[in-house]
Each structure stands twice: as structure tokens, then as C-alpha cells.
Protein: Hydroxyethylthiazole kinase
Amino acid sequence: MVPGTPAPGDVWAALHSVRRSGPLVHNITNYVAMDLSANVLLAAGASPAMVHARDEAAEFAGIAGALVVNIGTLSPEWVAAMLDAATVARDRGIPWVLDPVAVGATSYRTRTASDLLALRPAVIRGNASEILALAGAAGRGKGVDSTDSSSDAVDAAGELATKTGAVVAVTGEIDVVTDGRRSVQVAGGHPLMARVTAMGCAASAVTGAFAAVVDDLFLATAAALAVLGLAGARAAVDAPGPGTLRWRLLDELHMLDEATVLEGTRIS
Amino acid sequence: MVPGTPAPGDVWAALHSVRRSGPLVHNITNYVAMDLSANVLLAAGASPAMVHARDEAAEFAGIAGALVVNIGTLSPEWVAAMLDAATVARDRGIPWVLDPVAVGATSYRTRTASDLLALRPAVIRGNASEILALAGAAGRGKGVDSTDSSSDAVDAAGELATKTGAVVAVTGEIDVVTDGRRSVQVAGGHPLMARVTAMGCAASAVTGAFAAVVDDLFLATAAALAVLGLAGARAAVDAPGPGTLRWRLLDELHMLDEATVLEGTRIS
Amino acid sequence: MVPGTPAPGDVWAALHSVRRSGPLVHNITNYVAMDLSANVLLAAGASPAMVHARDEAAEFAGIAGALVVNIGTLSPEWVAAMLDAATVARDRGIPWVLDPVAVGATSYRTRTASDLLALRPAVIRGNASEILALAGAAGRGKGVDSTDSSSDAVDAAGELATKTGAVVAVTGEIDVVTDGRRSVQVAGGHPLMARVTAMGCAASAVTGAFAAVVDDLFLATAAALAVLGLAGARAAVDAPGPGTLRWRLLDELHMLDEATVLEGTRIS
Structure:
């Protein structure tokens, strides 16, 4: 095991800390993702808020434990609020997570992601196509679903981490987390999760909750993905389809106990 | 029992009236709450509509049986539409419900809630932190989840009701409903309901449906909360987590029959 | 059987084609419908994207397999984006579906629907009240739920199809699909589906997915409605309420196999 690899006990400690602290997570996320993100955060023990008006986003970011900015559904007003809120987060040392949904699909998205990147997100989470596009490599994404595999994006993720100072997570069949020096793989989840909308966005939201309470953001990110993957894998057992998976995931996340996390964490 | 306390038979009559009339409930509510609010209204027998454009909100309010204004996710255009629609509702005697989500958390929210309050909502529903903040007391809310208990807010609710002429509901472990003269407690629900996003918003939406068909708004509000609490408590039986609770709540609300309501109503 | 009536084998071939191609479906749809629409599209095998900013809607429409425009929740910016995207779709021969939610309820809605109609949608799907209103007949709709039956709207649908060149679908207890020359009835579904919000919007979204991969849009529309109705009817078996129905619908849609489609399709 690579030195610095989070142990199952670290993952449990991180989840326990989220539950105990109930961190306020400020989300500026897309319309499709709001419901699942809020419910996943509540099931994980955090306290979600969705605040995007330019008149209040910056003020609200200042009282949050973490900020999650997801560019899934954009508009000029929202982009302005994202930049305002991210600036406050950066200036005050509040960790903020960038989810560059479908970056590369339109020039507006690419420009917005680039402007946000300049505000130094603490964590970046995307699928392989998005991370490749963000790193300037040749993403071949179509819309929001990845057409590249995580492993293709590993090099791009490392470069992106080194260049930006962020922890970068590429999620897919196997998740990869890197800070440019350390790099781990997080196994878990289930293919059916890709048939539930906004599951990747929910992963970003949960990462925000963990980043709010765990100082080591590399650990926070790996732990968040491990926990969500574990809940998803358990939810998928005998699930006939994505409808069942979605609600069971929330139940499993709510019920995860120490033994299950210690036994089920797969970080290497 | 205090005179004027709604009896179980009143609660059932109110639910039956919602189902028979299928009132059109106009919601200007936050993005996170729209799905659950619409589904709870449909499960209760009402007909929900979400209409927030300034070009049509006022016109639409005029054809609705009730209006629900929820400030969860704000923007200048929406605030203008909220004020337009509430003005129409007030002028035409259409009952309207104010849900002051996270009032006190930012100055924009506090200002907006104050402007809406001046348009004389028929009912105000919030958690303890929100009612305290709205009444000018020292709310200690963080985001949308209450950090105060309902009982702390009882005095504030009474003052708010007297000052505004509205029925005020403080929801939490025990709900309190007051019109400044009468005051009742509504028991029911389950702690797991707080782990499902927008459950409070859904309570406001259902209150709108009951206010559309029951003239006595004190009764309408207590009955709406009793019905939702009863459905929630039944949904929580053996529920492993919030995922299950959410869909079962809709089933239970849809299935509630006279015997169950008469037996399960807890208003005192 | 009328010549040109889609056979069960055609319906299965169409669903199989959606699953194999995973078409990118660009939705500009209302806030309430986004979650269910995206999940229904994923369960059907398509790849949904929700993109509504004026800065990117037209560009995105150009890379999509189909466009779905739903006027459920309007704002001036969105209407502009809808018109931009529909223009691109029309000019490039990308099939686009119009869902005229609650047209007739406000003048803003009626005006917007009329502007969109001028951009020649390939398919129009609405409930009876909406189709009557769109055809200029006397819709008596209240909000988004139909107060007319499908059969009342059959003549209006035929006229609308002839006038616009679109395939027109009127959904309700029995769905009717016509292109002005051919006309079929699609049986299936369950009354409980009307107690789940945005089910009609989801039908429009699925129609978009089928229109992206089946050249004959009359067949594509009938097949989409047959598939959704079949999944809904199966989901409703022993369902205690709308909560259960909603998630089971996604499971059933995901699981539909050839034998079930061949046996369960009811187009006449």
C-alpha cells in the first residue's frame, strides 16, 4: 500500500465526524441534482443548503463549512454567484469543490469552468471525459455522461492536481483520487448507479461534507467516495433497477455502521 | 381540551374536502422542494402548479385556490413574482401561505421575508429558528435546518400571529399552531422526516391545499399538519432510512382513510 | 387494424434501438420535471442533458439526437433559449418535441406556445386540455392537470397535426397519436400515474429519445408511449400509492424485455 493511503479506520472516522458535526454544506448545483444532493447530504449526516442568488451567495458561503459548485445547469446570474461564492471560500480558507459537469460540451461551459478553476478549488471531481477536458486533453464527452474511462484520465488528473493545487477525483467504475503526489484507487459502487441521474453530482456534494470536517482533503475526498460507493454497492444488491437503487442508497448511507465501513472500504 | 381545538372528525372532513375538490395550489417554491411538494399535493388529492415567471405569476394566482410562497431559493425575478402573486392573493381573498426558509441566514432573505410579511399571509409555517427570526427574536438558525426547538418559538409565534393576523405554525418534534388567541399542539411525524429534504416545505404546500377548501384557517393548518404527521409516522414504521420514508409517505398520504385519521389524529 | 399501425415488434425494435444507441436528449424542461425526466430517460437507455442557458442552448441542440421543449416553468431567458434551440433543431433536421404544459392557463403560456409552434416541432405531446387549447379550441384546463378527456381532443389533434405537420399525441386514460393521416390509440398505463408529478413531461422526454433513433416519428411517438404505459401498468400492480409507483416505473422500464413488450403492447 502506498504511504498516505487512507485506511478503513480513517474512512469511518471521517463519516463519524460528518455525523457528529452536521456541517453546513453550501451547494450551487444544477436543478437536476438538487434533490438527490440534498437527500444524500442529509442521509450522510450533513446539513445541505442550496443558495445561488447573487444577492446572497457570497454572504452565505462565508457561514458554510464547505461550498460545492456544480456547473450542470448554467445561467449568467448563477455563474456570477458561483464566482462570488468561490472567491469568498478561497479568501477565507473554506474548502470548495468544483464539479465541472459536461465541460467541453459547449464553449460557455468550458469558459465558466476555466474561470472557476482560477479561484483555486480545493477539490475537483468529474468523470473521465470531464477531467480530460478540464486538463486540456481531448475529451470526447457527449453531454453529461462520460465516454472515456477513469484510467484514461489518470494522467490528466495528476497534471491537473499539480497545476492547480487541488485534489482531483475521477469517478467511474473505479474512482481515482490524486493530489499530484499521492494517488489512490477507490473501488466500490455498481454500474446501476450510472442509470440514476445526478449520482456524480451527489458524490461531489458528499465530498463537500467530508471536506468540511477533515483537514486532509486527499483523505476527505477518498473517504467520501468510499462511503458513497459502499452505500451504492449495498443498495444495488438484488435491486431490479435504478428506481430501487436510488432510495436504497439513501437508506444504506443512513445506516452505515463502523463494522460495515471497516469491512467494506476498498482503497488501494 | 381548549375550546376551538380541532377534533379528529374535523381533520378527516378537511382531508375529504381536499380530495373531493382537488384544489389548484399555486406554488412559488424553491427548486429542491418542487418535486416533493408537487407529489405530496397530488398524494393528498390536490392539483399542484409551479408558476414563478413575473409575466404570469400574478395572473395565475388569480385562478388558484391557494398560493404558497417559499423563499428557499431566491432570485430578484422570483422575489418580484412572489410579491406580485401575493398582492393578487391578498386583494382577492385567496389564502396564501408564507414559508420563510432560512430567514435570518442572509440579509437578502430577511428583507424578502419582511416584504412578503407586509402583504399579510394567511398562514406562516416555519421551523423554530425561522419563526424566531421572523418575529425579530434571536434566531440561531444555520441554513435551513432548525437549531431551536418548537417550544422555544411558541411565544414568538403568538406574537407574530397577533401582529400580522396570520395563523402561525411552528413545526418540529411537536408542531404548534396559533392564531394569537387559540393555540394547539399537533403531535405525530417521526425524527427521520428531518432527514428528507424539503419536508417542511411539503408541509407548507399541504397547508395551502387545506387552506383552499377550509374556511377556518386555524383548523386548516392544524389539520394539514396532523395529516402529514400521521402519514409520516406510518411511513416511518420499520423504515430503515430516509429513502424508504420518502416514498412511503406518499403512499400513506394517498391511502389514509377515515378510521385511520380518526384514530391517529393527535391535536391537543 | 389500420394500415401503418405500429406492431409490437416495431415497438420492441424501437426500444432496443434506444438502448443500443443511447441517444443524447437535450431537454429544456420545467424544474419539477427535470428529475423524473432524466431518470426515465436513463432507465430507457438514453443519455439526458438539461441545458437551458441562452449562452449555450443553441450550440448544445446542435449536438443532440433530439430536443424536448417543455413550457412548464417559464421565464423570459428560458423562452429565448427555447426559441434558439428549436430554431437550430428545425434548421438541422433534429427532431424536437413540444410539451405545451398548461397552455391556455395564462396569456404568457399561450403566446410562448404559439411562438414555439411556428418553429415546427416534429412531435407535440399534451393532455386533452392542452391539445384543445393549442388547437384553438376551448380548453377548460386548470393548471397542469387535464379537465378534458383524450377522446374530446382527437379531432383537435388531427387538425393540429394537419396544420403544423407535427405528429400529435394526446395522452390520458387512452393515448391517441396522429399525424393527420394515420391515427392510433395506445392503451396502457394506470390511473395512479396521474398522481405522480411530471409523468406527462416524462412521456415527452421518452418520446424525444425514441424520435432520436426512429425515422418514422409517428411510430417513434406511439412506441414511446406504449413502452412508458407498459412500464407504468406493471409498476402499478399492487402498488399501494404513487410513492411506490414512481420508483417501480423506473425499475420496470429498465427491465422491459422483448417478450414483455411483444405481449404487452396495445396499439390499435
User: Anything to note?
Assistant: The CA atoms of residues 103 and 110 of chain B lie 5 Å apart. The beta strands of chain B are 24-28, 47-50, 66-70, 96-99, 123-127, 167-171, 175-178, 183-186.
